[in-house]
Amino acid sequence: MKDIQYLKGDATSPGESENKIIVHVCNDIGAWGKGFVMAISKKWKTPEKSYREWFKSKNDFELGKVQFVQVEDDLWVANLIGQHKINKDENGGAPIRYNAIEEGLKTVSDFAKTNNASVHMPRIGCGLAGGKWEMIEPIILENLSSNNVEVVVYDF
């Protein structure tokens, strides 16, 4: 099992030379325009365009699903749908869906192993989605690190 590596820096600029996947959390209503996605869109147009097309198509667009968008020869952006809507629900519950994060990270793990890729991310699900890192970190450890996938988490 590999430990999660924590770095200060920009998750959109992973430094290693081998294959890399940048994972981030998307909502299930087709909204893109706040949070980490802004940094992604500033650097590449394709992840947002692909996400919006995926949403419009309704083809397998649901919580727990992941869309891999190749943005460079050795780099993919993983649009992981792990957030239900964008606001707290009527009971004050955050939009994060931990089971969807877990399902999506299993898919990311398989993709990473197939492509011999490391995984890079901000503290996914802990910004606008309202998740808690103490809930997300064990999911990452179980679904990525325990499968010997290298994980780097960036604090900007």
Please give the alpha-carbon distance between the first and last residues: 26 Å
How many β strands by DSSP?
6
The CATH superfamily label reads Leucine Aminopeptidase, subunit E, domain 1
What proportion of the residues is helical, as a percent range?
Answer: 25-40%
Write out the strand line-up for the largest beta sheet, numbering strands in chain order.
Answer: 1-6-5-2-4-3
Q: What is the CATH topology assignment?
A: Leucine Aminopeptidase, subunit E, domain 1
- Unreliable stretches (pLDDT < 50, length at least 5) are none
Instruction: State Rg.
Output: 14 Å
Q: Which architecture name does CATH use? A: 3-Layer(aba) Sandwich
Structural class: alpha/beta
Count of folded domains: 1
Please, how many helices?
4
Beta-strand share of residues? 15-25%
Q: What does the secondary structure layout of this molecule look like, with pairings?
A:
Blueprint: E1 5-8, E2 20-27, H1 36-43, H2 46-57, E3 66-72, E4 75-83, H3 98-114, E5 118-121, H4 133-143, E6 151-155
Parallel strand pairs: 1-6, 2-4, 2-5, 5-6
Antiparallel strand pairs: 3-4
Helix pairs in contact: 3-4
How would you characterize the overall build of this protein?
This protein has helices at 36-43, 46-57, 98-114, 133-143; strands spanning 5-8, 20-27, 66-72, 75-83, 118-121, 151-155. It has a single domain, classed as Leucine Aminopeptidase, subunit E, domain 1 (3-Layer(aba) Sandwich), CATH 3.40.220. Helix 3 (98-114) runs parallel beside helix 4 (133-143). It has a six-stranded mixed beta sheet with strand order 1-6-5-2-4-3, with helices on both faces. The protein is α/β, with parallel strands linked by helices and 156 residues long.
